[in-house]
């Protein structure tokens, strides 16, 4: 009888472990929220989307208000076109701006929407005109190193004093 209760406890422990692994996998894949409420589509064009991924959150004031549905390349402008779905209860003014931001120093990227002041709101299918591309860490480092190398190359060596000069 005691052996059976130990086996039941081990089974419960293994089941809880599996549930924990599934929970972590869903969180890592940005599938932790299953809300499929009423949404509307918005589009934004960026020169560089960095590491933005499908299912990345769309946030405003730190609150998740939507998700990235798809990412494609505009064949005419060669810009990344990001299709997002925003909760219908959240209406943004038509002069709002979108930026690709990073959560933490090396965290995942997401889209941040800053509300504008226009009275007219975005309609489903509208394109956000004011966008700011992702900041790519490698580009910042290379620019910094290039500027430092240019500064070091332009600095002239100190002129030597003439040998017959008095002190």
The total number of structural domains is: 2
Biggest sheet overview: 8 strands, mixed
- The helix tally amounts to 2
Helix content: 25-40%
Gyration radius from CA atoms, angstroms = 27 Å
The general outline is flat
Low-confidence stretches: none
- The secondary structure category is alpha/beta
Mean pLDDT: 84
* Order of H and E elements: HEEEEEEEEH
Spatial order of the strands in the main sheet? Answer: 7-1-4-3-2-6-5-8
The overall strand count is: 8
The percentage of residues in β strands lies in: 25-35%
Secondary structure elements and their pairing?
Elements (H helix, E strand, L loop, with lengths): L1 H27 L10 E8 L10 E4 L2 E11 L6 E8 L9 E6 L6 E6 L12 E2 L1 E3 L4 H18 L13
Parallel strand pairs: 1-7, 2-6, 5-8
Antiparallel strand pairs: 1-4, 2-3, 3-4, 5-6
